[in-house]
Amino acid sequence: MAKHSPHILVVDSNTATLKYIEFTLTGIGYKSTLAKNGLEAIEKTKNQHFDLIISDLYLPLMSGNDLVRQIRQTPEYKLTPFIFLSDNKEEETWIQNLNDGADDFITKPFKQEVFISKIRAHIKKTQLRKEITDHSRKHNLSFDKGNIVFCTHKDNKFKLPLQYIKTPVKIIKSDKNLFSYLKKENVWRIIIDDNAIWAISILDKISKTTEQLIPIDILISDSKDTDKIDYLLTNHIDSFLYKQLDERLIIHQINSSVQQELNLKNKYFNALNTAAKQSPVRFENQYNEDIHDFNIQVIHQAYNKLAGGDFYETFDVDKQKKIIVVGDVMGKKWDAWFFVPAYIAYIRSTINFFMNREEFDFIKSPGKFLEIINQSIFKDLKLSEVFTTLSIIGICSKTSQISIASAGALQPLFYNAKENKLTQLNIVGTLLGVIPDAHYLSLIQDFNQGDKLLLYTDGYVEAVNDRTGSMIGEDVFLNSIKQVVSKRTIRLADIETQLIHTLNISKFDDDRTLFLVQKN
């Protein structure tokens, strides 16, 4: 399926600015819709799908801050990138903008190339977010894990005999409830009653919001209503169900379509699983090594034994120095796994090339390595379509130091044994492949007896607490780690056990990697 051209909503009271931005976006192949105030923008979001929103900060009728706050209350736009334009350069103003829900800001007057670079970067991110949000509906392989959504009118008299459908059916009666449900649940199919005017009127928005990954069926009341059928055929409809048919035939059509999807998923699942087993890129589930008085441990678990995007690699510089890389290709399971070998190839070749060159010291400047690898990845058209986080850690037992640089990874945790204090290290950086000239800082940390460095991928913080139904999150993860990290020597298995029991985690819905270095 070809990707649709990104659709951007531009909000500004200045007609000249609107036209200039429209001209710029058209030049890079993007579609734009224009609005002169916040109220007009809100109306346009009700019936159309936008991949990104650009708004002036100072608008008539509704301020830009009010606009972004209201946009964020709409389920389908909670993660849509929102960029402010303004000539206000005060830091406090921008902080307020970000707190209200904006993702970025561009100061006026802006250079066209800077504007285009930021827009493209955010479009890539929104495409990635959609893939991550929709991952479960692609891969869940049994009836009890997939739902059918039935969109109907609140007074609709036509009832689907739900007891005969082989997978759960959720009845939805409003657009707000529909988009909210799509964000939270794994939906296999959407069935829309043609009397549900609220859903029929936003068919295009539903299709684009779901990236056409979810089949849409229409229940037709009158097969001779050519005007309605002509309208429906202009949208992305997978099949039509006719109310005049015996209900057993309708149910048979629904169950058959779900069974076909199940068979197809199983077919590709088996093929991909075979490919993964034959891949030369594999990672041990557990890794443990000592370098003098430094101990290194890794736990690496693929989700449900399926290949995924997490990876790690170790390199020996000499007897006293070691390099470790921990990465996560964003996406889930196979979508991410296909890119892991390519990233590993870039990393291995780059490290091996510079390993013994005097002009480059990985231990002292891991950020430089990230800049080199980022430039290579950005130039690769295939890899630039996805994002990856990557941390590189250098360990030197001779100087009792570690160094670390990060490209978009979660902030690592550092435990200072002398102060009995666990903190997040302020080492962040742009995801690999987003912009070509990204700069990455190198943090060098003295390491004393009992000190510990812990890195983790999002499979841990995105796990769900079964008791509360909420995602764990970084703060809760940090507090749980505090309960075990003060021991002089710890095992990663103990940390994971602590997390599972104290946070009520029965399963992880993503592959996960936990990395520890400690000084004995």
From TrEMBL:
Q: Which UniProt keywords apply?
A: Phosphoprotein
- Gene3D superfamilies named among the record's database cross-references: 3.40.50.2300, PPM-type phosphatase domain (3.60.40.10)
- Which Pfam families does the UniProt entry name for this protein? Response_reg, SpoIIE
Tell me where in this chain the PTM 4-aspartylphosphate is found: D56
GO biological process terms, semicolon-separated: phosphorelay signal transduction system
SMART domains the UniProt entry points to: PP2C_SIG, REC
InterPro entries, from UniProt?
Answer: Bact_response_regulator (IPR050595), CheY-like_superfamily (IPR011006), PPM-type-like_dom_sf (IPR036457), PPM-type_phosphatase-like_dom (IPR001932), Sig_transdc_resp-reg_receiver (IPR001789)
The UniProt record lists the Response regulatory domain at 7-123
What the entry lists under PANTHER family is as follows: RESPONSE REGULATORY DOMAIN-CONTAINING PROTEIN, STRESS RESPONSE REGULATOR PROTEIN 1
Q: What is this protein called?
A: Response regulator receiver domain-containing protein
Query: Organism, per UniProt?
Result: Ancylomarina subtilis
